[in-house]
Design a protein that fits this description.
The protein is built from 13 helices and no strands. The longest helix has about 35 residues. It is globular, with a radius of gyration of 23 Å.
Length: about 280
């Protein structure tokens, strides 16, 4: 019996080793060496790559840019999606249309959509600046002004996650029993705000926790927007784009491996911390 069980689990175990465990072990090995792609020799350097990372101004700038990006995308991407879901959930005839309209950006490739945003935000040809000029203001350099780069990319990031998060909230809203709203109304919750605070918001706890964690991971994984819109210029680097430059443009495989482990550690700590903190407040 045990033999049959091992045989059935062997393919899954093999895939787990091949896709996750072995690459992580190789990543850990490369992170403590000075290996460069194509080099014939390799030298053990210990934690030198990790020490270098926290003294590297490019990495520190990429880290701060990513944190700022996430600080903008997470709250707006979650609560705007909740607001849109409440509005769409309250409609009857046009609900299907709004669901498709808001979810459409999720189905499109971000590289293609980033190209569209590049045209929309063009300082002289884009319709956004055309509208700003028509209103009597000076054109805004959204993609060349260093102080506007991260907020602009965050706006695109919010637009990207809004539809997916809205669908998740819609699923959570659909699962809430109407009897709870009736009971809350009989207990004195007359207004929509009262019913939202006493029924909707507590019952959406598991959905909200999932949306916050997944949105946080997506925010820290931002890459395509930077690669297409700015190519990392003007100090717009993010963590993944810095990893890409070090690993594939500069061929610093050992250093890129160390940066990857730091990135994974940040995402892991953030996800576990959010889950543990929010789980105490969630009503199942």
């Amino acid at each position: 019996m045990m033999r049959n069980g091992l045989m059935f689990s062997a393919p899954a175990v093999f895939l787990l080793l091949a896709i996750y465990i072995l690459p992580m072990l190789l990543l850990a090995v490369f992170s403590v060496t000075d290996y460069q792609l194509g080099a014939l020799s390799i030298r053990f350097v210990g934690v030198e790559n990790f020490t270098k990372a926290f003294h590297d101004p490019v990495f520190l700038r990429a880290l701060s840019n990513t944190v700022l990006y996430a600080a903008l995308v997470i709250p707006f991407g979650v609560f705007l999606a909740l607001g849109v879901a409440l509005l769409v959930h309250g409609t009857k005839r046009s609900r299907a249309f709004w669901e498709v309209a808001y979810f459409l950006p999720v189905t499109a490739t971000l590289v293609a959509m980033a190209t569209v945003w590049q045209f929309l935000l063009h300082p002289s040809l884009g319709p956004v600046n055309a509208a700003i000029t028509w209103l009597g203001f000076e054109p805004v350099s959204f993609l060349s002004n260093p102080s506007l780069l991260i907020p602009t990319m965050a706006l695109i990031g919010i637009w990207q996650v809004l539809g997916f998060n809205m669908v998740l909230f819609l699923a959570g809203l659909t699962a809430i029993s109407k009897d709870l709203y009736e009971a809350a109304r009989l207990d004195g919750a007359r207004s929509s705000l009262d019913r939202f605070l006493t029924v909707t918001w507590p019952m959406l706890g598991p959905t909200t926790m999932f949306v916050i964690v997944t949105t946080s991971i997506s925010a820290f994984k931002v890459f395509e927007t930077v690669a297409v819109l700015t190519k990392g210029r003007s100090g717009s680097e993010t963590l993944l784009f810095d990893l890409y430059l070090e690993g594939f443009e500069y061929s610093n495989t050992g250093y890129a491996a160390a940066l990857t482990l730091i990135f994974l550690a940040i995402v892991l700590v953030l996800s576990i911390g959010q889950t543990l903190h929010l789980d105490r407040k969630v009503h199942y």
